[in-house]
Specification:
Length: about 270
């Protein structure tokens, strides 16, 4: 019998080898960063007193993100991933979520479809080999200051369609904005410590300059939604081709998000 329960803090390090190697992910570090915050809901599947699966939820008011649903190879094909997913769906329903989101692996896509998730978009994964280290940072790219917070909150809500400031505000101290001299408008934001380095921008110039800046720092893994033709065309001019794709899937009513303004997705567990 499979039992689903919340993860204990003392169990975090037991999950070290759960992610596939190609995810290049330190799961205990990620969990430890978010553990104990009200938006974070980590759970495990237990069988015969042994942890055989993991998953977590991110709660952004009426929107719930399912992520990091992991079952080691020796325990697959037993319905464990399905039970973890159902538990998270029920949890978000109990919290009044009208929209639930996830980014599916090839292995998990059919599980999510059976539960009722539908594909709403697709992400393209790139490994950018071009040498951007000689890039000189655009003068409009500046460190985030404390008084930028309210503008960034609004900016994030307009692009994601989510109210998730409690989640993203922890990444602002190491972040950057694109803001022209004497302008009161933020045109773009780059949060290098959020997943693979979240980049939002409302104008192509800001998005491309922030993307070049990210690449110049050696952060070459880049993930672009299919709706952002500007970023996709830019990468193609650099000779880059996607090595993988992954669907964004939704249960309930999709939020009013703006994928054409996303110049790099953060992570599978939060978009």
């Amino acid at each position: 019998m499979i039992k689903i329960r919340q993860l204990l803090k003392s169990e975090i390090n037991l999950l070290k080898n759960f992610p596939p190697e190609d995810w290049n992910m330190d799961l205990p570090d990620l969990i430890s960063f978010h553990f104990g915050y009200s938006y974070f809901y980590p759970i495990v599947a237990e069988q015969n007193n042994k942890i055989v699966g993991f998953g977590n939820g991110i709660l952004n008011e009426s929107v719930g993100w399912l992520g990091n649903i992991l079952v080691p190879p020796e325990y697959r094909r037993r319905g464990i991933g399905h039970e973890i997913t159902k538990h998270l769906v029920n949890y978000f329903n109990s919290k009044g979520c009208t929209c639930q989101l996830l980014i599916a692996s090839e292995m998990g896509k059919n599980i999510y479809k059976k539960i009722g998730f539908e594909v709403s978009s697709e992400y393209h994964f790139f490994k950018v080999e071009s040498n951007f280290r000689i890039y000189e940072r655009d003068i409009n790219i500046k460190k985030i200051k404390e008084d930028d917070s309210l503008l960034l909150k609004k900016f994030d809500e307009e692009i994601t369609g989510e109210k998730r400031f409690e989640f993203i505000k922890r990444f602002l101290p190491t972040g950057w904005i694109y803001k022209k001299e004497k302008s009161n408008n933020i045109e773009g934001v780059y949060l290098p410590d959020l997943g693979s380095g979240l980049i939002f921008a409302k104008i192509p110039e800001a998005g491309l300059e922030l993307l070049k800046f990210k690449l110049s720092l050696g952060k070459t893994r880049t993930i672009i939604p299919s709706e952002n033709k500007t970023a996709l065309d830019f990468l193609k001019t650099k000779g880059c081709q996607p090595y993988s794709t992954a669907p964004r899937m939704v249960l309930g009513k999709e939020v009013s998000w703006q994928p054409k303004y996303i110049f790099n997705r953060a992570a599978g567990y939060c978009g």
